[in-house]
Specification:
641 residues, alpha+beta, seven-stranded antiparallel sheet, six-stranded antiparallel sheet, 24 helices, 19 strands
Amino acid sequence: MSDFLTHECGIAAVRLRKPLEYFHDRYGSALWGFNKLFLLMEKQHNRGQDGIGIGCNKLNVPTGEPYVFRRRSSERDALSAIFRKEIKNLFKMGRKSGLDPKDPAVVREHFDFGGEVLMGHLRYGTSGEFDGGSCHPYLRRSNWPTRTLMVMGNFNMTNTGSLNQTLIERGQHPVFGTDTQTVLEEIGFHLDEAHTDIYRRLRDENVSGKDMPDMISKELDLERIVAESAAPWDGGYTICGAVGNGDMFVMRDPCGIRPCHMLITDEVIAFASERVPLMTVFEADEKQVKALDPGAVITIKSDGSIHDGQFATPKKYLPCSFERIYFSRGNDPQIYRERKAMGAALVDQVVDAIEGPMENAVFSFVPNTAETAWYGLMDGLRVFRRQQVRSEILKAQAEGTLDEKTLDDLILRNWPRGEKIAHKDIKMRTFIAQEKGRDLLVSHVYDITYGVVKPNDALVALDDSIVRGTTLKKSILKILSRTSPRKIVVCSTAPQIRYPDCYGIDMSELGKFIAFQAAVALHRRAGRQSLLDRIYEECREELKKPADQMVNRVKGVYDPFTAEEISAEISRMVTPEENEWHGEVQVIFQTIENLHAAIKGPCGDWYFTGDYPTPGGYATVNLAYVRWFDGIGGRSYDLPL
């Protein structure tokens, strides 16, 4: 039901600190690093459904031999397929040549991914292109290793148009109008500049060509290159890159919007979008895995030396709350606790909504990502019921009416009843990702358990978020209604999503949000089209200002209404039409206050509140309204050149 468009991705990177012989001798395999990369990616597979890419840099490769390698695929089961194919090719080569594919020297020389720097990227996008060329890492080749660059990331830039324009004004010829290509070319430009400056100075000092590569490699300052490149960027990002000489960097945006974690041991330096995969794959303690600071850049030179620096001044820390609500796996201990807290925070609203005793209610969840929050909801309901029972027992005792029947009624009946009602057919995920034909296919994504819900029951279905309401209306509610409950209550652990996101979760088209549609419907029903017209003009005026002076004029759409009024209109809008079931539908959303109470520490909430962490967010939201009003689809931050 979390049917938003998204470019949320996952990264994994492994930098070996020992030679392949070490891993062969200690662990029995020279492919130890390659296997660890696969496991890191597999443990984050929920972040990558559409395609993957892997890359490798080999250190100290003789001149004339290849040193950088890449594979990308958007085919079904691409992750397993690519790794399986590479291993198969290695052993096939061994059979044909007579070389031992288990020999570290053979692996280093003949296996493309037998190197020290290994990178992996998982793409999860339900909009945009769907081919291998859309997958990271992106590669910028040169016959100088110190100018060759491979980049991957989890990011969106809000100012892609202006960044591409900068390339053009510089005299470059960008081929793609995407933020990924822009990032690659911007870092590549500054890398070229640094390389050329060092080269010319060394040439003027009569350094021989034989010594030149090593000296350039030693002097390259990746931290400075990254800082110069990132100066104009506005967005949320975690970016990992490797230079052909073996230098490597990982950086996190100044607001810490996109996640990145790091593990350093004597054997390896590893990075991943999530913490638990690093803990699991490398059998590390929770305290060993650190989150990168906002604005931080970790650089690793080809000689293995590490430097933890800053490429930008940190801003107010606002990590994306959808990491906690939806994307990251719930086996992270902190995320597990927070998701349970989100479910428990809905108890009061749920109790009011079922309008009767708990024995006449069934509590379930959909989709599977909401299961952890459902445990929290069930725990909260049980606590609520225990307190209720205690109060009733004390009251009956005081009134002298406490007897066996009363105790049976209070203790043995009326407890929260949890059931698995909806079952998602995950095989459908690849197909419904396409916008074309989505409505037809989305109605067949779920199956249900029959015979559990009684006609006098209220059926409560917990979800992690509700964005467009498409799956809710055209699939979930139609299917759940076949159980014939007296009422269906749908609860979202996330608040109403009212504003676009432009930092990674590609919720960009304002007119597709069910909360926005509900507010507009309420205005039009009340004859307030003039207010919508006025907001349009206000947004146009905001767009004439510099981004750092803009304010969010779209808040005016929601100001006249309470959250409950918008939820009631959403309930009306998603109620299935032409359905034999005529029960009531009620949609409940988490309050923003309870979300912040559940998530410990800073929490980015701009999609709920409209308070953006960067100037580009305000440009995005105002432009999104203008585009909606003018009937123009597409992402509001994909500006034409």
